[in-house]
Amino acid sequence: MSLKARGRALFIQLLMGLMSILSLYPLYFILVTSLKSQREYVYNLWAPPMHPTLANFVEVFLGSKMPKWFVNSLIITVVTVGVSTIVAAMGAYAIARGRFWGHRAVFNTMVGLLVVPPVILVVPMFILMVRVGLINTFSGVIFFYAGLLIPFSVYLLVNFFRTLPEEVFDAALIDGCSPLVMLWRIVMPLAAPALITLIVVNAVWVWNELFIALVFLQKEELRTLMAGLALFQGRYSTNQPLIMAGSLVGLLPALLLYLFGQRYFIRGLTAGSFR
Questions:
Q1: How far apart are CA 216 and CA 136, in angstroms?
Q2: Where residue 157 sits, what CATH number does that domain have?
Q3: Which of 34, 163, 192, 261 has the fewest CB atoms below 10 angstroms from its CB?
Q4: Where are the beta strands (DSSP E) in the chain?
Q5: 159-211 pLDDT, tens per residue?
Q6: What is the DSSP letter of 169?
Q7: Is residue 192 part of a domain?
Q8: pTM (2 decimals)?
Q9: Is residue 262 in some structural domain?
């Protein structure tokens, strides 16, 4: 390797290292601040805590509705991702393998829906849910979230299903498998990387979503964790360590889920790109 090439490689490594530090610094600041008392935060803003304390986390869990908001977010996320994944898998399988009349038009419609900003749908969806009585209910938010997730989910799964070898389906048909049995026993296990990628991406989005939750869940006891943190921050705006402790509680589930599914991301997100 020439001296010029080595210098270029070293520069790239240093640049990537700097970008990694800048990306991880907010997480570091949240963590060290959450372990400080209010007094130490004022006099020791940037350094690690000299006397770490868990008092902020105790206050978060025992002195607020954070546990209730956490459970609300967990219920909404699990149900939304489960419903949208099942519906998208069945729809994507029908589009990719069913070859029914108009399947191309359905797929193109799904792709077109990806460019529609969710904020445009808030007003008509709010009016609809007021009329049907779904404001301040988990069902209304889950219905809205699932509708937003299904187009992207179908797009990703269709591209992956099309990469599966035809011989697998031919063998399943010879063995007498029905389309539904073929989907759940053959296609779904083979599509595990795409499904895990889809579940992680959708779950992180639902967990972190704020605007729709604020509009459709107006009662305090029904708020999701992100919406609750917005209220929490307003109440304790002068107590930054307490706010950072609450933020860390909200951040950890999404971070752990991402770390669990990261090995599948590249394979899942590039599915069908070379077909």
A1: 6
A2: 1.10.3720.10
A3: 192
A4: none
A5: 888 888 888 877 888 878 887 888 888 888 888 888 988 999 999 999 999 99
A6: H
A7: yes
A8: 0.87
A9: yes
Q: Which two tokens stand for residue 220?
A: 């305090």
Q: Is residue 21 assigned to a domain?
A: no
In angstroms, what CA-CA distances link 108 with 72, 87, 115, 190?
35, 17, 12, 25
Retrieve residue 189's tokens.
Answer: 């296990």
- Supply 273's token pair: 């790109």
Token pair of 117 as six digits: 């900003």
Q: Which token pair is 260?
A: 């669990």
Q: Kindly report, residue by residue over 49-107, the tens digit of the pLDDT.
A: 888 999 999 999 888 889 999 999 999 999 999 999 999 999 899 888 766 777 788 88
Tokens 């509708």, residue? Answer: 147
Structural tokens at position 211:
């605007």
CA distance 199 to 204: 8
What DSSP line would sit under 72-137, residue for residue? Answer: HHHHHHHHHHHHHHHHHHHHHHIIIII--TTHHHHHHHHHHHTTS-HHHHHHHHHHHHHHHT-TTS
Domain boundaries, position 93 = 84-269
